[in-house]
Amino acid sequence: MGLQRTISQYIPQGVFVITVRHGDKINGMTAAWVSQVSFRPRLLAVAIAPERYTYELLKESGVFCINVLGDDQVDLARHFGFKSGREVDKFAGVPYLNALKGSPVLKSAIAYFECTVVSTCEVGDHVLFVGEVGDYAVQVEGAKPLLFRWDDYFGGVEA
Fold first, then answer.
1. What is the pTM (predicted TM-score) of this model?
2. Which residues are 19's β-sheet partners?
């Protein structure tokens, strides 16, 4: 087993859809590299590769939303993970509402956290966006979050 698969197996992570809005453009991308990084203030962070369309919109807007997926939503995670929003409207047919600062919130997400960016940091081939939580809600009480399993998304391919 390669190092990336080993990391993914032994350092558990959730699966999320990170959504952004800049003007009339919206997009979402699947992410597993999400974490709380502070109690006071409540800060959450997400790592995003600069080549992603979501990265471009987030750099402009300064606001992102972490949509927490339930353990039965692997297909939704794949939907937001394998196409670029530059070429495809990922929200076509996907019901959503808007958080307080306008970020799309997936109606089927079990919870969401809208954050305003307070800091960024280059970390290898990604940029870490740290945001302070503003709007949030639990939309499905008692649901279990989806956990990232390498083979659900990449099969036998090693990074």
1. 0.93
2. 28, 65
SS (H, E, C) the chain: CCHHHHHHHHCCCECEEEEEEECCEEEEEEECCEEEEECCCCEEEEEECCCCHHHHHHHHHCEEEEEECECCCHHHHHHHHCCCCCCCCCCCCCCEEECCCCCEEECCCCEEEEEEEEEEEEECCEEEEEEEEEEEEECCCCCCECECCHHHHHCCCCC
What type of residue is 23? G
- State the residue for tokens 């990170």: 18
Per-residue pLDDT tens digits for 76-116: 999 999 888 999 999 999 999 999 999 999 999 999 999 99
